[in-house]
Amino acid sequence: MNEMNNTIGESIQEVLFNRYPAEAVRQLEQLQTEKMAEILAGHPVSKTIKIWERISPQLAAKILEELPVAYAAELLKQIDPNRGASILLSIMDVEKREQIINSTEPKAGSDLRRALSFEPNSAGALMEARVMYFRPDMTVAEVLNVLRARPRRAYRKLYTVDNENHLLGMIEIEDLALSDHNATLSEIESVPPAVLEVTAGREELVSVFEKYKVTDLPVIDFERRFVGVVRYHVLLEATLEENSADLQTMVGVSKDERALSPASFSIRKRLPWLQINLVTAFMAAAVVGVFEDTIAKYTALAVLLPVVAGQSGNTGAQALAVTLRGLALKEIYPRMWFRVTLKEFNAGLVNGLAVAITTGIGVYFWSQSLGLTMVIFFAMIMSMIIAGVSGAVIPIMLTISGQDPAQSSSIFLTTVTDIAGFFSFLGIATLFITLSIL
After folding, report:
1. How far apart are CA 418 and CA 407, in angstroms?
2. How far apart are the first and last CA of the chain?
3. Which residues pair with 170 in a beta bridge?
4. Which residues have a Cβ under 8 Å from the Cβ of 262 and sit 6 or more positions away?
5. Which of 31, 116, 171, 186 has the most CB atoms around its CB within 10 Å?
6. E-assigned strands of 20-156?
7. C-alpha to C-alpha distance for 173 and 4, rounded to whole angstroms
8. pTM greater than 0.90
9. Which domains does the chain possess?
10. pLDDT at residue 105 greater than cutoff 60
11. H or E element at residue 230
12. Dihedral, 23, 27, 28, 34 alpha carbons, nearest 10
């Protein structure tokens, strides 16, 4: 009988978790951490994922500390990497954090490490991730019960979020203590004077703090989900540390080139890439050389060749810029390569068709040659598809190999787009000559 009751209870919980996750989180937050861990551990991760996506990272971290590492690894495999990073950052034990990451499958672990990495002195690197947030429909009494059940901490402000964890408002702890216990948080919350994105640099942080004269500011990710708080004293300490580091590098030793860096430093930084660029340029020239006879027969091909190469280069650069931004802001991760590639393939196909029609019309009126028009029409579509896909794949592949995609992607992309443009245009022209179409 007890076994049947347990089965019924678990079934009811699963329905609550899947259909009413917001209400389920509200009920769970009233329980002790150990009890929450016991309830969630009684269900597969796939059945409780909506709960983990909504519960505050600080509370989620405390629950995970009560559960086996295998459970945590499975959760982090299924949950969004940015959300998983927020939970991991709330785990104070660094060894425990590493143990969990190492237990996840390699692709998920790699994405988590990228999500946990931020530029030095950025909002993401300086923020305190161990923050609690609440729902605006919770009452003051409910929030006070939650705070009493958690370890004592010096809370200055509380924050409210919607069901997708988007930041809504903030509440001063004094206002909470003095408010009617039956009042909801939506009645006493106010809009934060400013928010910071995780990628905000030190200069922006200083500017915002000075403008609004606040002691801390909430931090959001690229989807406007609340992920942490930057405290003013942390920013001040980081600024002092950076200034001390600057004093040590005044002799000219630096990892990054500056406008007045020594020429030898610039040479060491630039020359290897110039040599690589030279090799890739010869590769593109070799493709043109293969079709030397074709160009000799139809000199008009030489006139139109830069048009195809130029359009494929612009297409690749657009895809590269979007992909680099996505990687930098952690909108995408290497394991998402297929989705990104498919999107750029579709974009290259549609844009290629549109540009090919315009180009074909212009070439026909200029040359009065239907064969030449068909050559550039098909070459434009093919080269723009290849360029778009390459602009997405190259930075992702460099990221997987541990290289900086922002530093070397453009060189490899230029090579691919040039070769794609030359080969598609001259290759199709050669085929048409063989078929006596051109």
Report:
1. 19
2. 84
3. 159, 190
4. 252
5. 171
6. 133-134
7. 45
8. no
9. 2-114 (1.25.60.10), 133-248 (3.10.580.10), 263-434 (1.10.357.20)
10. yes
11. strand 226-231
12. -170
